[in-house]
Design a protein that fits this description.
about 250 residues, mainly alpha
Length: about 250
């Protein structure tokens, strides 16, 4: 239990840093300098204002100096990072997989929220993911042909969708699908894409039914690919075994 609390605490701190990345990377700003500050009044945040989750509650969702509202995204990202990293720990324990999948989870969170904010998936982040996943695959001696073919398949499939949809599917989604292939391999890539399309369809239908979107509304697909990747990475083999058991 103590170890889970430690991992959760690390996740909260990591989530705080991920918020910096989500805000600054699309703006071309350094994620290191200057130190964290209010984007409205530029006031440098003090130690109490940097405590994940609690600082948001303590400040009642507003900057203490200019009263500008603080987006709910900040505590949400911190909480998500804590929960998702705790799941990774419970799944893999203290192991190289914990480090690898924690890094992957952090990257997917940043990509997802940047896509939600800007409808753009930064190419450099996908590149970091490819390097990260390739290094892990080589270190753990994953079958080279499997993850290379999966990367090419993910990229090729989404590039075809990109062409047929005439830009309805973005170029960032194409590259992200390629990354998923490198991360997951052929079998689990299929699982991830199925989850992504089902989740995307459900959310789209809910938005249409609630009147918050229409058929022409652009909905970023990156977060759904990220969800599919995370679920497949954590439980993909179990899902595939369950699915196979329905027919054999």
């Amino acid at each position: 239990m103590i170890k889970v609390v430690r991992v959760t605490s690390v996740g909260l701190l990591l989530g705080s840093f991920l918020n910096v990345c989500i805000y600054r990377i699309p703006r071309g700003e350094s994620i290191v300098f200057p130190p964290s500050h209010c984007p409205q009044c530029q006031h440098r945040l003090g130690p109490l204002e940097l405590i994940p989750l609690l600082s948001f509650l303590w400040q009642r969702g507003r900057c203490r100096h200019c009263s500008a509202p603080i987006s709910w995204r900040y505590p949400l990202v911190e909480l998500l990072a804590a929960v998702l990293l705790s799941i990774v720990y419970l799944r893999f324990g203290w192991s190289p997989e914990l480090v690898y999948y924690s890094g992957l989870t952090a990257l997917l969170l940043v990509i997802s929220f940047i896509d939600l904010d800007t409808m753009v998936i930064p190419t450099q982040l996908v590149g970091v993911g490819v390097v990260w996943a390739s290094a892990y695959n080589i270190y753990t001696r994953q079958p080279l042909l499997d993850w290379l073919l999966a990367g090419a398949l993910g990229y090729g499939l989404f590039y075809l969708i990109y062409i047929l949809s005439r830009g309805g599917m973005g170029g960032g989604d194409v590259r992200l699908a390629g990354l998923l292939g490198v991360v997951l391999g052929l079998k689990q890539l299929a699982c991830a894409l199925l989850i992504a399309f089902v989740a995307g369809a459900i959310v789209s239908l809910l938005l249409l039914a609630s009147g918050r979107a229409n058929r022409k509304t652009a909905i970023p697909f990156g977060p759904f690919l990220a969800i599919g990747c995370y679920v497949a990475a954590m439980w993909g083999q179990s899902i595939l075994n369950w699915y196979s058991g329905l027919f054999f």
